[in-house]
Specification:
The chain has 485 residues and is mainly β. The strands form 10 sheets. Strands 1-23-22-21-20 form a 5-stranded antiparallel β-sheet, with no helix packed on it. Strands 7, 8, 9, 10 and 11 form a 5-stranded antiparallel β-sheet that branches. Strands 29, 30, 32, 33 and 34 form a 5-stranded antiparallel β-sheet that branches. It is built from 3 helices and 41 strands. A hairpin with a 4-residue loop joins strand 5 and strand 6. The protein is elongated.
Length: 485
């Protein structure tokens, strides 16, 4: 928004920090959580993966969203701070090598700086009046704000001139007050208006914007050159687009006291084509930035929105995940000491827990597993749950199987294997006809299977250790232990 309104609003809402912490109320099917609760004055921030950079006007903080831990702190130089200096935006470059930081009413005016994370150095400031937000479109940088010394000029989206000449060329006139912009992976530009009288969400296609960027003589684009995506009941503050192209924006209707974070529903036209994800009627909440990570529709904390409000901690908003228990669990005998499990994939599951009774055996990311190291001729029963972050489904129905092997005495068959231990050759003496033999290593893995055409088995090609010979006699399988020296 224009500088005088920005300063006025900041002064009005700065008193909100005396209220108790408030977070947004989630609409049905969504979840809101307060994050970084010890930091209630993070007025600008940006997210890239699990990296969150935020500033309170005196420092920049680097957090790991996976753990909510502070990783690093950068103290801002004196020429970027001051009593009446306000951060307007903080942006992470796509390669996560540079931080871009905008200020208004600084000691040298309204400026934009870049910080090289590796070298720890700041650039000289680029002067751009009433800068408000920044986004990247290919190799170009777009900044929303007034970009003029005349308050009567319309707010706009400008191409940042990084040559040092401060010739920041206007690309789109948007009018009204300044607001945040968003750009999707295809380069389409999204902007929700504020203060134009009839607020709407607009989209300019990438080709149209790039043509104006590349042609300095081209006419400046306007709202008439954009596609209307949705009407908005009140002026917006910020717009963002996640990696899957989902579009989010927020607005505060001070006439009704309702503040909303919403998602465009994909329909175009001059209707309220959005879904309310979270809301607040609390007078202590004045919404500011929205930044996304991952694909919001995939649900869970790794695919959410970070929403800001003046003087309050940040809020994580994400789609609720309801995991069902895995179905069609099948247990299959694989040998004398192993059973294979398989089941049907569960939507939104990131992993699966495998249980034997109440004991958690292991966690896997696929829909099959072989349980090894079991006793032969023994029944085992298993169940599986689906997992997404801290969310775990109910257990599946149990599936049971019995490991291979019958006791020799059950069939009253006289066997003799010798020598045991052996250096390689194992002779088999039996009153019954031994039809075939399977060889298993000490891990229960079958390493060979053959018809028995002689009275011995040759193990000399295998390493020393314990082996099991599974002899097939009259359709029954009988295990015999052998030590190979």
């Amino acid at each position: 928004m224009k500088k005088n309104l920005l300063v006025t609003i900041f002064l009005i809402v700065s008193g909100f920090s005396m209220y108790a912490q408030s977070i947004l109320n989630a609409s049905e099917g969504y979840v809101t959580e307060t994050i970084l609760s010890d930091y209630s004055n993070l007025s600008v921030f940006d997210v890239n993966g699990f990296n969150l950079y935020a500033s309170d006007g005196s420092k920049i903080y680097h957090f790991d969203l996976a753990t909510d831990k502070l990783l690093d702190t950068y103290v801002l130089p004196d020429y970027m701070t001051g009593t009446y200096t306000y951060p307007s935006f903080l942006k992470i470059s796509p390669d996560i090598e540079t931080l871009w930081y905008g200020i208004t009413s600084g000691p040298n005016g309204d400026e934009i700086f870049s910080y090289n994370i590796e070298t720890g150095t700041w650039s000289e400031g680029y002067s751009l009046l009433c800068n408000f937000d920044m986004e990247f479109i290919g190799e170009h940088i777009l900044v929303s704000g007034l970009n003029s010394t005349s308050w009567s000029d319309p707010n706009c989206i400008s191409l940042l001139d990084v040559s040092g000449n401060d010739n920041h060329r206007k690309i789109i006139d948007v009018g009204g007050y300044s607001a945040g912009l968003g750009i999707d992976d295809e380069g389409n530009v999204y902007y929700a208006t504020s203060g134009v009288g009839s607020e709407k969400l607009y989209r300019w296609d990438m080709e149209t914007v790039i043509n104006v960027i590349n042609d300095s003589s081209a006419e400046i684009l306007t709202l008439d050159d954009a596609t209307i995506l949705s009407s908005i009941p009140a002026g917006a503050y910020d717009t963002d687009v996640d990696e899957a192209g989902n579009v989010f924006f927020d607005f505060s209707d001070y006439a009704t006291g309702v503040k909303n974070v919403v998602m465009w529903n994909g329909n175009e036209g001059d209707n309220e084509n959005f879904e309310i994800l979270a809301y607040s009627n609390d007078p202590a909440v004045s919404l500011t930035l929205v930044n996304s990570k991952g694909n919001f529709m995939n649900g869970g904390k790794d695919n959410g929105i970070i929403a800001g409000a003046w003087g309050l901690p940040l809020t994580l908003l994400y789609k609720e995940i309801n995991l069902i228990a895995p179905s069609d669990l099948v247990a299959t005998t694989e040998g004398i000491s192993s059973i294979s499990l398989s089941w049907t994939a569960v939507e939104n599951a990131l992993s699966y827990n495998i249980y034997q009774g109440e004991e958690l055996l292991t966690t896997v990311s696929v829909t099959s597993y072989i349980v090894e190291g079991l006793e032969y001729d023994t029944e085992y029963c298993f169940a599986v749950t689906a997992v997404h972050d801290e969310i775990e489904s109910d257990k599946s129905e149990e599936a049971c199987a019995t490991t291979a092997g019958e006791s020799i005495t059950e069939y009253e068959i006289d066997f003799r294997l010798y020598p045991n231990p052996t250096d390689g050759i194992v002779y088999i003496e039996s009153e019954a006809n031994v039809e075939s033999v399977e060889i298993y290593n000490m891990m229960g893995q079958k390493i060979a299977s053959q018809k028995l055409q002689s009275s011995y088995v040759d193990l000399s090609s295998y390493p020393s250790g314990f082996y099991t010979l599974l002899l097939e006699v009259n359709g029954n399988k009988v295990p015999m232990r052998i030590v190979l020296r």
